User: What shape does this take?
Amino acid sequence: MSEIIIIGAAVIDILARPASAAVFETGSYATEDIRMALGGDALNEALILSRMGKKVCLETVIGDDHAGRFIAAQCRKNGIMIEERQIRSDFPTGINVVLVGEDGERSFLTNPSGSLRRLTVDDICMPFDKNAKILCFASIFVFPKIRTEQLAYIFSQAKRQGIIVCADMTKCKNNEKVPGMAKAFSYIDYLFANEAEASLLTGETDMKKAAGALLLSGVKHVIIKRGKKGCFVKTDSKEYQIPAKEAVCIDTTGAGDSFTAGFIYALSKGETLEHCARFANECGAKAVSVLGAAEWIIAK
Assistant: This one.
């Protein structure tokens, strides 16, 4: 029985901070911290929401290997619903090497043959749990086999069940544009994107125009994540900027996922749109203050 369903990627992150290109010259480089952590946008969101007391189901795929079994065990330890059907023997679990610079910005080394991009519609259990109130697709543009038609199918199923549909994204990979996404976007109640993602998808360099273009696709609420500038919220009737919470930036890995999870948590509590955005900013600020995507709440 789950109140919130999160769809997307679940991987292992190996984080090193601070990372330097000098390692390629010296052959060895001492960093302050190297650690293994849970990662992937969907897993990050699920972990945060579960630690906040929500009943969460994670729809993802992982490999039948040490990394995958570790993810599954940690999900169950944290009360996240994950099933044996999601553990697959035909590919390894995705493992990212995350190189975090002095400024907290990060670069990724990824394994294209791993589970990171393997999710398909057939891997998602539908119809959804009858108790589900909110669904979030955490990884638009990540999965090659989940394009506009498949997203529309998933989102329309959720809407038929009376579920609130949220979606987060990465940068589009195949020159996708808003008009081509409208069939799927018209089902989305809350869409999250950072400024670069919104600009690339809409072709608009002005943030407000980009948000407006997303609204025209049928999205009900557009939330633009702006990092240390906070976030911008736009609906058909209003728009406003919510300032960020101050934080010392250690690592930006998963900050957007923490933002989205915080927003969804407040939304599940029936809070106003402005309150949801402010709480999301608070969670994002907490995320950047530590190394690792969800460590700020897991370590509690």
User: Anything to note?
Assistant: The chain has a mean pLDDT of 95. The radius of gyration is 18 Å. The longest helix spans residues 273-288. The chain is about 35% helix and 25% strand.
